[in-house]
Amino acid sequence: MRAVSPFIISNLSKSFTMHLRGGLIIPVVERVNFSLEAGKCTVLGGPSGIGKSSILKMLYGNYKIDAGSALIKHGQEQVNIACVEPRKMLEIRKKTLGYVSQFLQTVPRISALDIVAEPLLQHGVTQKTAHERVKELFTLLNLPEKLWHLPPATFSGGEQQRVNIARGFITAHPVLLLDEPTASLDTKNRQVVVEMIEKKKQEGVALLGIFHDEDIRQSIADKIIDVSDFAPLDIVKGRSKNEDGQAA
Ligand SMILES: Nc1ncnc2c1ncn2[C@@H]1O[C@H](COP(=O)(O)OP(=O)(O)OP(=O)(O)O)[C@@H](O)[C@H]1O
Ligand SMILES: [Mg+2]
């Protein structure tokens, strides 16, 4: 029997309502269909502004899903992110679904070490063990030791990005979303992240990522999905909708 996919996305749609512009509705993606596979890295491709990050944010529960379903395998159950209760979503984020956003959300006065250790502490790991694991990751990611005990608000873009990556990779989530995790990194650290992704694949994690760098894509992508295929019909070049909303 074929194993159930860790994440099945069917007919997902999203539009934004611009309240400051008289409620103008801007459709972003329609009929998004794909599924993830354990141990594989699926990459979302397509031009800037096409809706790649919006898809990740919908799947992580940051953006409301307008239509369609996103079924995640959470332990023995399958949960639809499109209609999940907030408390369940938090449980899914804790145990099943990891996310490395494009930018680190810094918390005033909390050190880089504690920001990255936090998800482990939530899983009952002692602070001592958690800090050891964080230090290993920081060393791997070449984050200078003098920064470890400082809050990352003043770190450079690449340093913040490495803290963010460490936080997303430190736990053993079976599904991991990555929004341009290598965008601000130099060649050496990009290679480190590529190796960390390879390791996650070997551990059976299903990854969904956005990478603009062609070399990185070539080395890690098992499947590339062109998000332009999900552009709303009324903004696809050469097509328009009539007043009934039917594609003409
Ligand atoms: N919260 C929001 N409110 C209104 N519009 C939004 C919001 N988030 C995204 N958009 C719009 O949705 C579209 C898709 O944005 P998104 O960030 O998903 O693109 P992207 O494919 O990730 O682009 P990039 O490669 O530049 O990161 C853009 O036109 C953007 O302006
Ligand atoms: Mg984006």
What does this protein look like?
The chain has helices spanning 52-59, 86-95, 112-122, 127-140, 157-169, 187-202, 214-220, and strands spanning 7-18, 24-36, 41-45, 67-74, 77-80, 97-100, 175-179, 206-210, 223-226. The strands form 2 sheets. A 5-stranded parallel sheet has the order 6-7-8-3-9, sandwiched between helices. A 4-stranded antiparallel sheet has the order 2-1-4-5, with helices on one face. The longest helix has 16 residues, at 187-202. By secondary structure, it is α/β, with parallel strands linked by helices. It has 7 helices and 9 strands. A hairpin with a 5-residue loop joins strand 1 and strand 2. The structure holds adenosine-5'-triphosphate (ATP) and magnesium ion. Residues 52-53, 210 line the site of magnesium ion.
Strand sequence of the main sheet, in spatial order?
6-7-8-3-9
Low-confidence stretches: 236-248
| Secondary structure tally: strands | 9
Biggest sheet record: 5 strands, parallel
Helix content: 25-40%
The pLDDT mean sits at 92
Content of β-strand: 15-25%
Bound molecules: adenosine-5'-triphosphate, magnesium ion
* Computed structural class: alpha/beta
Q: Rg, please?
A: 19 Å
From the spread of the alpha carbons, the general shape counts as: globular
Order of helices and strands: EEEHEEHEHHHEHEHE
How widely separated are the two ends?
Answer: 42 Å
Specify the number of helices.
7
